[in-house]
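okkk here we go again. third time trying to get the adenosine-5'-triphosphate bound version out, last two times i messed up the smiles copy paste (missing a bracket lol). double checked this time i swear
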Amino acid sequence: MIQFDTVHKRFPNGTTAVHDLSLEMPEGGVTVLVGSSGCGKTTTLRMINRMVDPTSGTIRVGGKDVLERDAAELRRSIGYVIQQSGLFPHRTVLDNIATVPLLLGWGRRKARARAAELLETVGLAADAGKRYPHQLSGGQQQRVGVARALAADPPVLLMDEPFGAVDPVVRTQLQDELLRLQKELSKTIVFVTHDVDEAVRLGDQIAIFRTGGHLVQCASPAELLARPADDFVADFLGAERGLKLLSLENLAEVPQGPAPEGGAWTLVLDEDRRPRSWRSTSGDTTFPVRPLRDGDSLLAALNESIASPAGLVARVDAQGALTGVTSRDDIHEHAARAHGTASVAI
Ligand SMILES: Nc1ncnc2c1ncn2[C@@H]1O[C@H](COP(=O)(O)OP(=O)(O)OP(=O)(O)O)[C@@H](O)[C@H]1O
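finally!!
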């Protein structure tokens, strides 16, 4: 969908922001650009919709050289979300979302109906539409920013640190929402972030840049974590690289057995067989239990197996009823296997 072919950007003051970049961003996938401050991520993103033009090289969107397209028309056909949402403060939320449809000449009624539909899509209540941006929380404003970018249903979305200004809990919620939306919409997304965990969570591929606009490695999160190209990438991914890899594997394949009876710890269930707590045999100590489902990650399982006094993870079905328990040893074994597979088989 988006192809960079030896693209170079040198600003008039002599700064090279992007150095001979060749990169493909596949249709319907999320490509995350990461790297330290000033390494050229934003410039790369902005060259896609011609907010910045390259010094040399070619960028194609849908097979067409962007320099052969009218810049304003190109920009309207590509969704753009930035940090702090970039909403117009004096326009209502609904009118903000309707911006591009109105520019495209949709007519007020149709544009507003589309905006109202999108409010729901991004998880906001209908009455938020009548408010002004400053009357919303930072997280809600970011949702409006995403809705505005989606308004004319563009095939491509550019997102420049869209969740950088919100607290970690809201950030995780916004990431979840984006993943949910992406499952439905399959947009071609280019996403800039400083945050490696965000990149691993959201990316189908991750491109790591270093200062001077050099692309160092572009690979799937699993490949990157298992086989960083060099020390720079390994350092950038951080000391918890192994644990991050476990966040990509789920529990489904790990065996489970019946909950233990007569040991030091008993799993207490409610009348619907939902785990409530771990209770010591003497009965005077209880520990909280955090049951996991097949779709939860091996990292969550490892964490829970360490927190659980019995060293066991309670597993539940979609209704929350107990299906069995898994031991710390089984989780370790699968974790080691996941590492082995990722580092040789990719
Ligand atoms: N208009 C401009 N004129 C001159 N230099 C610029 C211009 N825009 C960006 N730069 C420089 O180009 C380099 C890359 O900037 P860019 O904003 O693309 O980096 P970034 O990786 O997105 O950084 P950050 O993570 O801090 O946002 C930096 O050295 C920056 O100072």
